Amino acid sequence: MSKNSGKDKAKSATATKTIALNKRARHEYHIEERFEAGLALQGWEVKSIRAGRGNIIDAYAYVKHGEIFLIGAQITPLIQASTHVVANDRRERKLLLHRSEIDKLVGKVERDGYTIVPTAMYWSKNKIKLEVALAKGKQTHDKRDAAKDRDWAIEKQRVMRRGNRDA
């Protein structure tokens, strides 16, 4: 055992590591507020996520009986998974949130027409966490405006760089 093993443990326990990102969420939604949620997973799902087989691109969350569930997230089972358990890679998974956060999300979804979308999945202190966002859908013209703004910002940077070289 090395002398620095205590430091390594402390560093790995506090570090967060991204497992999966949902970049499409920022493109298709106006993101209002973000929440950190735990996931109720089975053992084979955790093993698959450790192997890098998690995907949240097409996922969304919905409210059912006062609880919030994630649907559409794909966790592909490993080949070594048990044959006794039938693994459904797109099953609905319960999100673990505080009651006040659930009430806030339920109110916004039911009254104001918001959607709950996952934006990131990551490790936090050896637990898998999901960042969910309260979002409203963008319309086509909003997406075009965002693309135009992005292109204009890039063009401004190019002009400034050219101007700085000449001076």
How would you describe this structure in keywords?
167 residues, alpha+beta, Small Protein B, Chain: A, 7-stranded antiparallel beta sheet, two-stranded antiparallel sheet
What's a concise summary of this model?
This protein is an alpha+beta fold and 167 residues long. The chain contains five helices and nine strands; from the N terminus they run H-E-H-E-H-E-E-E-E-E-H-E-E-H.
What does this protein look like?
The protein has 167 residues and is α+β, with helices and mostly antiparallel strands. It has helices at residues 5-14, 23-28, 43-50, 99-112, 140-166; strands at residues 16-21, 29-39, 54-55, 60-64, 67-71, 74-75, 93-96, 115-124, 127-137. A hairpin with a 2-residue loop joins strand 8 (115-124) and strand 9. It is globular.
Number of strands: 9
Shape: globular
Number of helices: 5
Q: Compute the CA-based radius of gyration.
A: 20 Å
Strand order of the largest sheet: 1-8-9-2-7-5-4
What is the strand content? Answer: 25-35%
Unreliable sequence segments: none
Number of domains: 1
Mean pLDDT: 82
Q: Which bin fits the share of residues in helices? A: 25-40%
Q: Do you know the CATH topology? A: Small Protein B, Chain: A
Largest sheet, if any?
7 strands, antiparallel
CATH architecture: Beta Barrel
CATH superfamily: Small protein B
Q: What is the CATH top level name?
A: Mainly Beta
